[in-house]
Structure formats: C-alpha cells, structure tokens
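Justification of computing resources. Each target in the renewal requires a structure prediction run like the one illustrated here; the chain below, 236 residues long, is used simply to show the kind of job we budget for.
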Amino acid sequence: MWKLFFDIAYAFSFLIISPSARFRFRDWTLFGYREKLDDLLNTRPELRNKKLRVTKGGGSLAFIFDECDVYRVRKRRYEATTVFPRLAREQRITNALRRYCTVQIPDIEIIHGKKFIFYKTSFIPGVILANLSRKTLNAHSDEIAAQLATFLKKLHSAKPKSIADLTDGDKNKHWCHTDLCSNILIDPKTFVITGVIDWEWATWANIDIDFTSLYNRRRKMRRTEIPTKTINKYYE
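Resulting structure tokens:
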C-alpha cells in the first residue's frame, strides 16, 4: 500500500511548478522515497528484479524485497546521511545480545550508498503486537505476558563482555531494549512472539524502563492486562 501511495504522490509532484516547493514535497512529505530507493538499487543492482514492498514506521522507511530482506533508511535526510555511529552501535549490541534472546532479533548489515546509509536485516514475519485489537490482546494476555517475561529475564541477565565498554559499570543496571511498545512482532494466528526489532535505543539501564516501555507510547497497551501480567510473571 505504501509503495503505491509513494509512487502516485511522486508522479503528482511533477505538477508542482516551483522547483524548491517540489523538492520540499519530495523530501519532507515523501521522505525522499524515490531518491533513497534509487540510491539503494544503484548500490545493490541485484535487487531490481525482486518484488518490492514499502513500509514506514518510527523514523525509518523500510524497503522489503521478496519478503526476505529488509533495507531500512532514516526518513529525514539529515539523519539518513549521518546515522552511521548509531547504526554501528546498534549492530554491536544486537550481535552481542542475540544468543541471550528467546526470540529473533535483527542481524544488521550496514550498507553505504552514494548518498545514504542503509541497514539490512532479514525479514522477521509477524505483525506489531500493539496493532492487534484490545479484545484480542486481553484474550491472549497470559500467553503473551509469559513470553515477554521470559524474553526480558534472559535479556536482563545478559552481560556480554564484547559490549562492556558501553555500560557504566553499575551492577544494579542491566541491558534493556527501552522501546518495546511498537517493536514486538507476533504471529496473529498462534500468538507466538516472533521477534523484537529496532534496538537503536537499547542501553544499560534500570529494568523498570523496559516494563514502562511496554505501554508508554500506546494508549491501547495501557488499557490491556499485558504490562501488569508481564511484571507479575517476571517476578514469579
């Protein structure tokens, strides 16, 4: 759906007479969609013959090819060209924490195009947990909370030496995702959590931040039993 919208809107932009207004529309309303896609395809020409789907969320555009590989790029130009240190940090953290996690987390490859920086991950199937209906979330709150509690226990117990330099040495803190609310993927048929994505803000912190991040950005999640049940099962 988003690819069709962007393609139609890009075609519409040719009707904008002022070059500066046309650039602003393409860069701010369409997030530089065509320019970024062209840069990616020029960098990875083997992608041209693959089926493309486009999504957007948070601060990124995602180009998904053959429901297999995902190439993300920051929406805003000033971030898309200077994001390398943050991506490199996220890559280090996910590489170090992967073996401790009970669900799939992204395996990141950083790709430098001529204009933009992309990060490639394998496609993790599933839908965003917080996008399910409140009725569905409450009906399956026990099984979802149990999985989240297990995931968080393993994550919080991880102390990989390879990223010890990213901590402050405080033994009362633990590795935390910090932005769980809209980044939990789940199979909508089996209600098995398939993955946790977007580790950009993962950090060494008090574990309370992960419990609050389950609901702090979505009112729907605040109105479900999942956050409370997750905490209860975590401390059982």
